[in-house]
Write a structure and sequence with these properties.
With 460 residues, the chain is of the alpha+beta class. It has helices at 50-68, 104-117, 163-175, 186-194, 197-202, 234-245, 249-259, 288-312, 334-342, 362-372, 376-386, 403-407, 422-427, 450-459; strands at residues 6-12, 16-23, 30-38, 42-43, 46-47, 74-79, 85-94, 100-101, 123-135, 139-141, 148-149, 151-162, 179-185, 204-209, 214-220, 223-230, 272-275, 284-287, 322-325, 346-348. Among the domains are: 3-80 and 165-194 and 353-407, Nucleotidyltransferase, domain 5 (2-Layer Sandwich), CATH 3.30.420; 83-163, Dna Ligase, domain 1 (2-Layer Sandwich), CATH 3.30.1490.110. The longest helix is centred in the middle third of the chain and has 25 residues, at 288-312.
Amino acid sequence: MDNSTLLVGLDIGTTSIKVVVADAAHQELQVYGAVAAPTRGMRHGKIVDIDQVAESVKNAIQQVSEKTNSKINRVVTALPVSMLQLESTTGLVNISDSGKEVANEEVQRVMYAAIKAAKKKDRQAVAFFPSRFLIDGEKDVDDPRTMIARSLLVQGLVMTAPSAEIHNINTVLKHADIQNNFFVPAPMAFSSVALDEAERTFGAILLDMGGGSTTATVIRDGQIKYATVDLKGAADITHDISVVLSTTMSDAEALKRDYGYADPDLASENEKFAVKAVGKDENNLVSEKYLSEIINARLQQILRRVGWGLYNHDALSLPAGVIITGGSALLAGIDDLVAADYDVKAKIYQPAQIGLRNPVYSVAYGIVNYANNLSDIGYLANTVIYHDSALVSNERPTSAGNSQKNAKRVTKKAENDTELAYNKAKLDGEVDTETRHEEKTNNNENKNKGLAAFLRKFFD
């Protein structure tokens, strides 16, 4: 296999690492293989043990390398929305007093000025999204290259992440003998495959129900408008089952996967299965409905807290509704539960490609799609931030002079970005990083009763 044309997407999750390998040599991106492997050393989306996470990444890369018969040198890595802030910024550079044709170098210089202007202590730029270029302060263009200019101004948005967190991820990849091309915000990757152009423009909610946390991200005008994070996820549902049924975490996970429903109304009271309880010689018989009530209690808690922020930002009226992904998206009835609780239309997204038909691969697949469709202007922005590491493909860099030719094959017009309120929300505390206590309940709460209602009060 020609390794130089491979795109490799890496999604480091709390409970699992997902890797998708695709080939960008053809007109349409071709997926060659994917792996989801267990993660150790992560907690609620953050690295708590570099060596353990590095070993997990190395193991996942080795598995997918063997599966695709390829040598993986470089990856494009997802960043969770909980790390991100957006800053509006402007950059201005002089080209020539008499006017000169704008080349890549001038575009890079003006984007560097804009990114530098937005620099904040203890944070570093991970992406830059130009919204417009102004030639000589008058002519508004999307791509100024080959045009004559005396001065060039760019307006756009810089996405930043904590320097310490970026250092930890880069250290993990270094220990795993992998080089990172660049970072992609997880919601941007997900939206590139889960939403069509109209949905990205007019607005949708991406609900990622991961193992260690649940995130809801509002995408409108092609960019992140608002995000909220709840530090509870699929692993907490498994823990609840383990505690209530007095069984091991591994058995609880198997029960959730094989017999669990998001909505207890879909489960049977008569369908029962044996549960091996810790400290007991005999197995307990548990019904599908009882198990599903345990699952539903935690889901309702998560959806209430996430939904409160969405309601306050009028996101529940967006035309595309809610698109669900992540491990909990596999729970039967989760889409109907979300639709009923939020009074919106909801659907589950999973990639359609053979070998990827599982919601857990949504972000990793989105990464390779996002990278493959990166515009020339987007690529130049990455070279400003990541320098010689900003390759798109798996090829090892040879020299600065030919890196763009080797790495970029697809040219598409960059989407225009509008002014966002996301960063203000971050500063105002609207992007949640801690779980809240008592909050307003939705109109459907009065239907909950019995065990589910008791557990819900207990969790709150």
